[in-house]
Specification:
single chain, about 250 residues, alpha+beta, four-stranded antiparallel β-sheet, three-stranded antiparallel β-sheet
């Protein structure tokens, strides 16, 4: 499958889908509190996407995924399935949103702290978000995918964290997952060269312990093998001649 360079009309649709995905994360924030279940968060997001945004939650039934969002708590790296488990004080949770609007996908995720969390959890979240933005800052026409991975890996490892190898970012557009694969580790100056009009996600998963993960019996939920905490942030970006445009930027980040 080759890399798809988006046309101006496709970029316009991707901007809309990206903005909607960001708005779901903004909407759900007040509800991420001790005692809420991830099932309740899923329903709130599902109803908002369908009824308010008149859009489609992309994860629902994607290769059999049973819910409309992913909720990954503590040692869950990614693809956590919402359920009746209640969030408790001190938990950290990644909420991953992908919205389809007019056939185009917007994909983004963010870490939330449930009540007061430990200092080492706060630091992991901070470094993970910094690593994502350092990766994003490498993006421009003529840069390579290796530049992105190297910037993320260098920052994570300099803080004595590890970068998950089993999952990566990706191209996105009419399809949820397109080429290229965007690794969050690597060597600067290597890999595919970025061109203006490419749209990709950068979504590093950073672990407090080792980078090894395992997928649970449900076939989706990926957890750290050593049970250490994991954090993730994700944005969808357009590659431009001068640099990049973040299509899923939230108001708090502007």
């Amino acid at each position: 499958m080759s890399i798809i360079i988006k046309s101006p009309s496709e970029i316009t649709k991707m901007r809309i889908a990206g903005r909607l995905a960001a708005e779901v994360l903004e909407m759900i924030e007040p509800y991420v509190v001790p005692g809420v279940t991830t099932e309740q968060l899923d329903k709130l997001c599902h109803d908002y996407i369908i009824d308010v945004q008149k859009a489609i939650p992309a994860p629902l039934n994607y290769h059999g995924f049973p819910k409309s969002i992913c909720t990954s708590i503590n040692q869950t790296v990614c693809h956590g399935i919402p359920c009746e488990k209640k969030l408790k004080e001190g938990d950290i949770v990644n909420i991953d949103i992908t919205v389809i609007k007019d056939d185009y996908h917007g994909d983004t995720s963010k870490m939330f702290c449930v009540g007061e969390v430990s200092q080492h959890a706060k630091r992991l979240i901070k470094v993970t978000q910094e690593a994502m933005f350092l990766g994003i800052e490498q993006v421009k026409a003529g840069a390579t995918l290796g530049d992105i991975g190297h910037a993320i890996q260098k920052h994570a490892e300099s803080n004595r964290y590890s970068v998950v190898r089993d999952f990566c970012g990706h191209g996105i557009g009419k399809k949820f997952h397109e080429e290229p694969q965007v690794l969050h580790y690597g060597k600067a100056g290597t890999g595919i060269t970025l061109d203006a009009g490419m749209i990709i996600t950068i979504e590093p998963m950073i672990n407090l312990g080792k980078y090894d993960v395992k997928v649970l019996a449900d076939g989706w939920t990926a957890v750290t093998k050593d049970r250490s905490l994991s954090a993730q942030f994700e944005h969808t970006l357009l590659v431009t001649t001068e640099g990049y445009e973040i299509l899923t930027l939230r108001k708090e980040e502007m």
